[in-house]
Amino acid sequence: MVRTRVIQTLFAYYKDSDKTVTTARKELTKSFADTYDLYFMLLDFINELTAYAQQQLEEQIGRARATHSNWQPNRRFVANRLAQQIFDNRTLRSRIMEQHLSWDSGMPAVVEIYRQLTESDFYNEYMNAETCTYEDDKRLWRLIFQHLLANSETLNDALDELEVVLDKANWTTDADVVISYVIKTIKRYQEDSTPDTPLLEMFDNEDELDFAKKLLETSLKGHEEYEQLINAHLKGWDADRIAYMDRIILETALAEILEFEDIALTVSMNEYIELAKEYSGDKSYMFINGILTEILRELKHDGSCMKALTLK
b or e along 248-258 (b: 16 or more beta carbons within 10 Å of the residue's beta carbon)? Predict the structure, then answer.
């Protein structure tokens, strides 16, 4: 995700002539914070869905009383122990309040996903099982995120709306990756976890943020040099017709390959080819792989890049 953020920031920077290098730096930092806020929002979705279920249950209880029915409510979902632990988590509650995060504009999605949940086989098996352990409570929420929220158009529509209301970016594109972080968090919880249970950090380590900042700076500083290298190896391609995203990916890849000596060539090549598959045209990854390979062969020949010596 670090390289993705740098590429997105560079794309916006070069597309908007009013942006400055200072603006690009600030936008890069904000993009990481926005993704981290999405992590907390999706964790808080557990609370929102549970609260909505509680509301529906209370309405059913009210109707049963009004009709003098002997219907007995099934409170298993609203009493889910993992959900209660997430609600009690002090770091989550603090972040939600400090950043003024709210699902208010996304409530239609909460309602629709609750409907989908109650119609799912795994939910009904959970609700009707003879016994329910803490692991059963955890498993239910893993299944909700895996089967109802991952690749969910309903969720993406809500996040699209919330991006505008909360002034965030990339939430719809980041959703499935961040959902994997939420599932990882759920797996870490234990029955004796307390309200002070640590959540995931924004970065695995501070080196990731330093890398992102340096990669952005290096890409901006070497823009003209990388552009010339690319143009010199197009071989029949019209430079003006190269997709802009392809150029950004190529320039960023060159910045990393030429300036970050501690990152293996194969790692850099693979990372940017995968980025091309995800963010550019259907065949862009082959074009990018070809151009990078040609540039590196030249650098290997003249010995100007030690990494290129590992190129077969």
Answer: bbbbbbbbbbb
Q: Kindly report the number of other CB atoms within 10 A of residue 281's CB atom.
A: 13
Residue reference for tokens 């990494």? 307
- Name the region of 167 (left: φ>0; alpha: ψ -120 to 50; beta: rest): left
What's the mean pLDDT in 269-291?
84
Angle at 4 between CA 267 and CA 241, to 5 degrees: 95
Q: Label residues 151-183 b or e (16+ Cβ within 10 Å = b).
A: ebebbbebbeebbeebebbbbbebbeebbebbb
Residue indicated by tokens 């997430």: 86
CA end-to-end distance (rounded Å), the chain = 28
**Residue partners of 301: CB distance under 8 A and separation at least 6:** none
The count of residues in the chain is 312
For residues 289, 294, 295, 301, the Cα torsion angle rounded to the nearest 10 degrees is 140
Q: Extract the tokens encoding 306.
A: 């030690």
Angle at 258 between CA 241 and CA 285, to 5 degrees: 40
Helix (H, G, I), strand (E, B) or coil at 193: coil
pLDDT in tens, 282-307: 778 888 888 888 888 887 766 555 55
The pLDDT assigned to 205 comes to 67
Asked if 80 and 137 touch (Cβ cutoff 8 Å), the reply is yes
Mind listing the pLDDT tens digit for each residue in 179-219? 999 999 999 999 999 999 999 988 766 788 889 899 999 99
Is the Cβ–Cβ distance between 38 and 175 less than 8 Å?
Answer: yes
202 and 32 Cβ atoms separated by less than 8 Å: yes
C-alpha span between 243 and 63 (Å, rounded):
60
